[in-house]
Design brief:
With 292 residues, the chain is an alpha/beta fold. The protein has nine helices and nine strands. Strands 1-3-2-6-9-7-8 form a seven-stranded mixed beta sheet, with helices on both faces. The termini are far apart.
Length: 292
Amino acid sequence: MDQPSLPFTITHPTGEPGPVVLSSPHSGRVYPRAILDRLQVDGPTLLALDDGPIDKLGQPACEAGAVLIAARYPRVVVDLNREPDELDHDLVADPDAMAELRVTARARAGLGVVPSRVGGRALWRGRLDAGELKRRLEQVFDPYHAQLESLLRERRERQGIAVLLDCHSMPGIVAAAEPPVDAALGDRFGRSCGGELVAAAEAVLRRAGLTVARNRPYAGGYITGRHGRPEARVHALQLELRRGLFMDETTHVPNAGFHAVQQALGELAAALAATARELARTRCRPPLAQAS
């Protein structure tokens, strides 16, 4: 697979660097020719897999001190928010060459680490060789997660704490489930992120006029599970935004609400940074001396 030198882009903070890292794993827009030649679906069908210009929403967050890592490639190349061995058995031409292959319910539905179907339609012209699938993991999946881990480690070492905000968008049909949701915060039911940070995020989003839910309809995926380690002062929170808030859901063209959501994301990053710094200070304070 032809590829740029790096399978991700990094936008560094324009101001004083803080403890927050934004991740945008499903906003890639670079389709290598080798991938296009193998696909048998049209552009609108492929767009349904992706999150749209979530990475473009992150500019105010970077002005607030956050760093943003964003995928170059779309989700059809490799899904950075899946287990690396989570794959549809029927997609692989030589499954015996992938001893680590693990078939899950999501993989059977076509949404494994390399998607095989969307909307009931097969994505690829025939099956894919194990060698090609392994190259995608080695060239795209592994470097993205290694870089994300490095960014979080740097911030924890410098700030005493790191916070990952993993940014996604959700289809309107999912967000409309009763009761409807504009923004979903996923902390894997408390396992990937401290409650103070989740509360701060929820308060910002509610002030922006959004309806917010925790761990519904999404509780966090592979990224929050892999990188969120609150006990090691690395917190990970997944954010899902209703697509219609900031873009046309069919074309992914930004709509009139784009700027307002962009500003809310900047305020969210600032609030997470302030809360994280307070947590780091509080937990580094020496205990009060015992009265004699």
